[in-house]
Amino acid sequence: MPVFMIAMANIRKKKGVAVSMGVLILLSVAIFNVGLTLLAGINHFYDMENDRLGGAHYMVRFTGNEYREEYLDFFLQDPRVETAETDEFVMMDMASFPEGGVISANFLNMDRSRKIGGYFVAEQTEVPEEDEAVYIPVFMKDMGYGLGDELILNYNKKDYHFRIAGFTQSTWLHSSVSSMVNFYMPEKAYEKLYEQQGGGYMLLVRVKDQADLKGLIADFKKNTDVNIEAISMDAKAMEITIDDMRNGTTMVVTIISVVLFVFSFLMVIVAVIVMKFRISNHIDSQMRNIGALGAVGYTGRQIRWSVVLEFVIIGMIGTVLGIALSYGIIAALGGLITSSVGVTWRSGGHIGFDILSAAFIMAVVVLVAWRSAAAAARILPVEALRGGIKSHSFKKEHFPLERTRGSLSMALGLKSMAFNRKMYLMVGIIFAGIAFASAFSLITWWNMGINDELVLKMTGYEISDIMVYKAPHENYEELTEKIGAMEGVRKVSLYEMESLSVEGELLSCYVSDDFGKLEMVEVYEGNFPEYDNEIVVTGLLARSWGKKIGDTIAVSSNGASAEYVICGLTQTMNNFGRICFMHETGLLRVKPYYEKNSIQVYLEPGLDIDTFIGRMEHSFRVLSPSAAIGNAGTDTDNGINPNTDSSTGTSMDTGTKKQEALAAAKRKAEEKLAALISMYGVDSAQYALMVDGEVVLSGDTNDYEIDRIENNRRLFVSNVDSIADSTRMMAALIITGTVLLVVLVLYMVIKSMLTRRRGEFGIYKALGYTDRQLMEQIAISFLPASVGGTLAGSLAACLSVNRMASLLFEQLGISEMNFVVEPWLILLMAFALVVFAFAVSMVLAGKIRGITVYGLLTEE
């Protein structure tokens, strides 16, 4: 009890320092607990929510003509399966928003009875079903959509208008980082859309034990004729496992959790350094009191515990409040978690992680306090009476006043710094850690939150200006030559995706006839394929296979197989890094019937993409022209609008109404034919329109040169927003934390300095020094430590940021991060940090006004 009372007396005597130390521990515990809870708990949370909602463990998505009933029968007859069912849906692959961005939209009938549900309506409002009511994922709130708003999607050159009736939450296809999204519609609205579009099928499976899933999928592929393709927006049959969904949807949360977890260790280290300094300072300032305790009979162990117990009490209070604050931080991150995962964070209490966090922090506090307080137990009463001086000091005098240039305040500040170099070394180390964290977050934010070029490169997509899809029977080389010869076209290239089995894994294989023409896709080691026996894979796959450049790997497709030499390594988040690159001639070895279908078009700088698309649709016969172009180019001979005179451009009077009716009928027929070709893989189709038994209009899709033309830039404009938002939030959290650290550390150090050197500053005042001069002396004494530490931490961040970021994104397929380090940004950050520290030091040193000569003389 006496030891406890001594500890409490020390806390009451130094309330400000005790509160600051408590806040530092509080922040350390809070951020540590947030990082630990999300990092270790997000996957469990996802699985818990998936089971609660009855979500699938395995899904195969088929276009309409790819599905077979025998696929469902296979799963229904397998004893490892808990339940399985097929769900019909309307698919809109590569549907785009008016403001830009592309998704693969799956529209499902919400009134249909399901065994495997996997979703629920979180919010809703009354919307008439005839207004095409739709329920959209909750993450789309962040895109600006609200209840009752209109949702417009452009698909196959046609705008579809919906009215938002509610928001849904689900663990499947409801994530902001996913390009495939599930929408739900009431039955009447769904049937109306189905009549216009037709649909596909989702085969959903839940297993009794997820450990059996991998073997079940292998047996499914072995015992049926299913042809699964790699995940892409135009795959006819693709599969998604619960592991794929979990890894993809929790990606953003995991990255932020790792960064916060690492940052919390920095805060713990700062707390440890400050605690050691605080205890050392306490022993120096309370030397006589400690000696008095020894003189009246307290043992060294009791004196030691009186010091330790002071920090244990502060630590316990800070830990409890930190745990409470962590719940608030996680709640504040709830929007990000909901957008990324698809469902609201509902973990409630996370007592296990709370106890683990509290135990870790308190163990550090007790250990550091016990070791640092050992000096108090060794102080003899006689030594205490001498103020701790054992003998004369022969230490070198640094910065002698008579020989030091500059102002007297600066000389005294530097002299103080040299005498108390351990303290300033501590401050320098803390500033190095703070600068490192700040520089790392700023570099990440600059490369992924402001400039989206790096993120776009990480996706693995080649983003040209225009994407042209040829009509089924058009000669690819002739069409490419025609487009390349157009005025304003800088170059054209081939870049398409096929599915291949490489070393037993299903990969997305990107094919080109000249990789040198590409501008977004890169290899970080080696070269792109030039010959028919070369292949590039991601570094992630190469490591998992134990392969390197120069090694051979087996590639197969539909029974054909061949060996290829790894000529380069790349990186991408696309398909979780499961991609490869191959030259066109190399693909023909395993896919001899491969046909090229798309053309990447790059325009000269300054040209408007939409205007150029209009020119192309006037020059070529396009099956699905842009809505904005109307029926430009539908005359199969010369692309002239039949509603205007070819010579004068004026409206024709004779037969105008008939021509308009025929033109409208032709456009309607083209829309239907385009939908058939796109949805069911039809090679060609013919049409004939009859009036009173007479054929008035006929045509054949073989007459068309181009299926459709897309503005490729607009499609990708918003697909990286979630990653940019997460990096901005991460940078904001870290910078806020570093600001608090600077304030807390300087407060405790300067507060202790004023207490310990109270008499010294009183003497300075008696000699005529003003408060301003003494404040400057204190602030200047911290400049070398803050400047040196900031520069060291900033330099360390610049040198290691790419390596650390590579480790952070490694599981997503990124092996060699290539952040651009802007020197001016880092220098600006370092300058701002030093200026802020100086300003804080001046403000905190203002308490020196409370020290007076009279007060020192009258103190008892």
Proportion of residues in β-strands: 15-25%
Which structural class is indicated by helix and strand composition?
A: alpha+beta
Quaternary structure type: single chain
Q: Quick one: overall form?
A: elongated
Low-confidence stretches: 388-392, 628-652
| Helix content estimate | 40-55%
Main β-sheet, in a few words?
A: 6 strands, mixed
Distance between the termini: 28 Å
Give the spatial strand order of the biggest sheet.
Answer: 8-3-2-9-1-10
Q: How many E strands?
A: 24
Per DSSP, the total helix count is 27
The overall pLDDT, averaged over residues, is: 78
Biased composition (Low complexity): 644-654
Pfam families: FtsX (PF02687)
Region (Disordered): 633-655
Transmembrane segments: 21-42, 251-275, 311-337, 349-370, 424-446, 729-750, 782-804, 824-845
Short description:
It contains 27 helices and 24 strands.
What does this structure look like?
- This protein has 860 residues and is of the alpha+beta class.
- Among the domains are: 1-54 and 250-387, no CATH class; 64-235, no CATH class; 409-460 and 720-860, no CATH class.
- 50% of the residues lie in helices and 19% in strands.
- It is built from 27 helices and 24 strands.
- It has a six-stranded mixed sheet.
- A hairpin with a 5-residue loop joins strand 2 and strand 3 (102-109).
- Helix 1 (2-13) crosses helix 9 (300-332).
- The longest helix is centred in the first third of the chain and has 39 residues, at 15-53.
- It is elongated.
- The protein starts with a helix and ends with a helix.
- Residues 633-643 have a biased composition (Polar residues).
- Keywords: Cell membrane, Membrane, Transmembrane, Transmembrane helix.
- This is Putative ABC transport system permease protein.
- Residues 633-655 are annotated as: Disordered.
- It is a multi-pass membrane protein.
